[in-house]
Known about the structure:
Elements: E1 18-22, E2 29-30, E3 33-34, H1 38-52, E4 56-60, H2 77-87, E5 91-94, H3 99-107, E6 114-117, H4 131-138, E7 143-146, H5 157-161, E8 168-170, H6 172-185, E9 192-196, H7 205-211, E10 217-220, H8 222-231, H9 246-258, E11 262-264, E12 268-272, E13 281-285, E14 294-298, H10 300-311, E15 315-319, H11 332-346, E16 351-354, H12 357-366, E17 374-375, H13 380-386, H14 392-395
Parallel strand pairs: 1-4, 1-7, 4-6, 5-6, 7-8, 9-10, 9-15, 10-11, 15-16, 16-17
Antiparallel strand pairs: 2-3, 12-13, 12-14
Helix pairs in contact: 1-2, 8-9, 10-11, 11-12
Amino acid sequence: xxxxxxxxxxxxxxxxxxxxxxxxxxxxxxxxxxxxxxxxxxxxxxxxxxxxxxxxxxxxxxxxxxxxxxxxxxxxxxxxxxxxxxxxxxxxxxxxxxxxxxxxxxxxxxxxxxxxxxxxxxxxxxxxxxxxxxxxxxxxxxxxxxxxxxxxxxxxxxxxxxxxxxxxxxxxxxxxxxxxxxxxxxxxxxxxxxxxxxxxxxxxxxxxxxxxxxxxxxxxxxxxxxxxxxxxxxxxxxxxxxxxxxxxxxxxxxxxxxxxxxxxxxxxxxxxxxxxxxxxxxxxxxxxxxxxxxxxxxxxxxxxxxxxxxxxxxxxxxxxxxxxxxxxxxxxxxxxxxxxxxxxxxxxxxxxxxxxxxxxxxxxxxxxxxxxxxxxxxxxxxxxxxxxxxxxxxxxxxx
Length: 399
């Protein structure tokens, strides 16, 4: 995938053109009310830019996981309303993404107008990348803009299929995401550190394998660190771990060593008998985890060590928390390291790129999301990029 072949709409005359924009409007909502508008906020600038240039902007997106065709619970109608309020623009809505309802709605769209078409997943052909569905949607537009990096890891009709049928371009959010990841992984300021956390090693084996060949320091956190400690002969009490992956961990550690990548593990830990709010907890050295306790966070010595590691690095890539941050006080390690990374970033000493649902939630809780160089709104796509995999939705734009 030659990313230098990506094209944007910069400089194009779009006046009167029908521009199909694949966005990601799959936001958290309850009873028709959006509860987290982050993804909508990020797509608004690109839509407003197209509208201001006289384009007729036609927005495509999936929403939820409908199983049996159209249903009110997974309709994009309330999301279209929320998008219009955020953009400060009238946003029309069509009750389907193909056929007469969509065709009539698009035909009546004025220059500079914006319309959201109904949930693309109401058609089974969307997730099957059905060529006929892609053709039916492509007939509604003159050009295609993919601004949904967060859905680019899926080869669906509206992420990959349409790009084969129309002149295809990367939207500004797609471009931002790709540039941020390229900056951190392909052309980084060194030394480079990566924080990789989360519950299970099994979900991140390809990430760890790929990053160990690209970064200088690999900081392991969360339940994953427990499995690494176990592989080193450390007793971890009742902590979450994957004993069946010890050989895999040894392989990862050996590969990292051969590539001069240092794997950084905790020196002290916060433990408790139960994972619940208000459970009594204490800090112990890594080698002193009681047999009846579970590891739920890293301790202050570990945080100080991790901060020292970051102080000697110029690029940071972060995916996954260091502990069970959802329940106090087990987020303190993650929050402290996040604040330290934010401070170095604000001082101009660190390029910091983070992504993944739990990571974004943790940075939000720490109050530092806006201080990182870039925080991705993508989950699966961000993770697959860290694995070194080709994303179909991106690759389709480079043909």
